[in-house]
Amino acid sequence: MNIAVVGTGYVGLVTGVALSEIGHHVTCIDIDIEKVKRMKQGKSPIYEPGLEDLMKANIERGRLDFTKCYEEAFAEAEVAYIAVGTPEKADGTADLRFIEVVAESIGRHVQRDTIVVTKSTVPVGTNDYVRQLVEKNLFENVNIDVVSNPEFLREGSAVHDTFHGDRIVIGANSQHAADTIEQINVPFGLPIYKTDIQSAEMIKYASNAFLATKISFVNEISNLCDKLGANIEDVTAGMGMDARIGNKFLNAGIGYGGSCFPKDTSALVQLAEQAGQPFELLRAVMNVNEKQKRLLVEKAKERFGSLQGKTVALLGLAFKPNTDDMREAASITIAQELILEGANVIGYDPIATENAKKVLPGAVAYADSPEEACKTADFAMILTEWDDIQAVSLEEYKAWLKEPVLFDGRNCYNPAEAAEKGIQYHSIGRQTTGTDLVLQ
Ligand code: UDX
């Protein structure tokens, strides 16, 4: 089919590239002409493993193109995907500004009966609003249908997730629209779940809110483990053996970040508020997450008394590995808190440094390797479990740091082994080890 995809952020670009890979003709639209030029040459504006190879292959096959111009994209399009951002407004609700502009533009440019598919995460009811906005500007005798087709991909494994996801959700109020979008997606070979539009919109929010809840729950349990002498990894291993709980998404850490969980949980809380059905549980999930981001700094303060004048190496700055995304990364809160405590901060990330410079406090210095960061520092904090950070040996930390004290926000090492190697090792929901080794 001929498909137009509006918006080339994480969701739009991956969607466009994946649809071209399974055989459709896709034109992606973006308002940024420089970005369009680069994408036409097969250069991805985001760091996403495997994406550029697929981009290049499908550009070569003549199935994938990029443009700034709606006329060009809609000359042949039978289906239009909306994949623009829905950022968080100051009041926590989803900002639909970009969706509105795109829906109106689509209305002005569709040449034939078209199915408009919303990929962006939007509050329940938005697809009806999209329909109204598109219909406002339509040519005579042109009809549109709207479909909600939420995206569940994870950054850093977006390409893999698109081809190996758990399900494709299609929300439509017309059989024809549901069947057409199903046909488009059949080549992915994934389970397809069809429902009405409102339910599809809710599936997306409910899924993200549930996953965020799972993380905050496990973080609370890990803090209790800390206090009561249990080991969070043994606890989650035992919990995860219950198929009703599942063994995924039970990693305790320094709180969730990224472009989805923080924004979508707060949008759902606001949506619930507006519906007169306050979502108390989700509010608690969000509060726990904020507290968890500060945990390592609290542990460091407890260990050192004062952090004044200490230099701290922050290893890993992106909100998770395999992405250059700094949105809502715990490193932002941690760097701010450390600086407030009078510490100096030197950060290292294999990929996200340029983006980090835009959002971390100006006082943060940057290193080109874990070694450089640690050799400058008194002690270190592991914030993101990148492979190259996990590859640092305990012996290296011992050799590099002025004080061999490690605060591991991602539980990368074995606590007993760390102590054996002469490290005082503070991790999440596990006993601190090596306390007798280090003199302050
Ligand atoms: C998430 C959802 O997984 C995805 O389905 C949705 O489409 C978008 O939001 P993403 O934000 O890319 O994807 O990353 P994810 O891998 O889910 O991690 C989110 C955050 O949770 C990260 O900060 C990660 O470190 C944290 N996390 C994840 C944990 O702390 N523990 C876990 O067990 C899992």
Structure description:
- By secondary structure, the protein is an alpha/beta fold.
- It folds into three domains: 194 residues, 3-Layer(aba) Sandwich (Rossmann fold); 81 residues, N-(1-d-carboxylethyl)-l-norvaline Dehydrogenase, domain 2, CATH 1.10.1040; 135 residues, Rossmann fold (3-Layer(aba) Sandwich).
- Helices cover 45% and strands 14% of the residues.
- It contains 19 helices and 14 strands.
- The strands form two sheets. It has an eight-stranded mixed beta sheet, with helices on both faces.
- Helix 5 links the parallel strand 4 and strand 5.
- Helix 5 packs across helix 6 and helix 11 runs antiparallel to helix 12.
- It is elongated and about 80 Å long.
- It starts with a strand and ends in a 14-residue tail after the last strand.
- It binds uridine-5'-diphosphate-xylopyranose.
- Uridine-5'-diphosphate-xylopyranose binds next to helix 9.
Report a brief summary of the structure.
The protein has 440 residues and is of the alpha/beta class. The chain has 19 helices and 14 strands.
CATH class of the largest domain: Alpha Beta
* CA radius of gyration: 24 Å
Query: Span between N and C termini?
Result: 67 Å
Give every kind of bound small molecule, once each: uridine-5'-diphosphate-xylopyranose
Low-confidence stretches: none
Work out the number of β strands: 14
CATH architecture of the largest domain: 3-Layer(aba) Sandwich
Number of helices: 19
Query: Average pLDDT value?
Result: 96
- Tell me the count of domains: 3
Helical amount: 40-55%
CATH superfamily of the largest domain: NAD(P)-binding Rossmann-like Domain
Task: Describe the sheet with the most strands.
Answer: 8 strands, mixed
Structural class: alpha/beta
Shape: elongated
In percent terms, what proportion of residues is strand? 5-15%
Report strand order across the widest sheet: 3-2-1-4-5-6-7-8
What's the CATH topology name of the largest domain? Answer: Rossmann fold
GO molecular function, one term: UDP-glucose 6-dehydrogenase activity
Keywords: NAD, Oxidoreductase
Protein name: UDP-glucose 6-dehydrogenase
Catalytic activity: UDP-alpha-D-glucose + 2 NAD(+) + H2O = UDP-alpha-D-glucuronate + 2 NADH + 3 H(+)
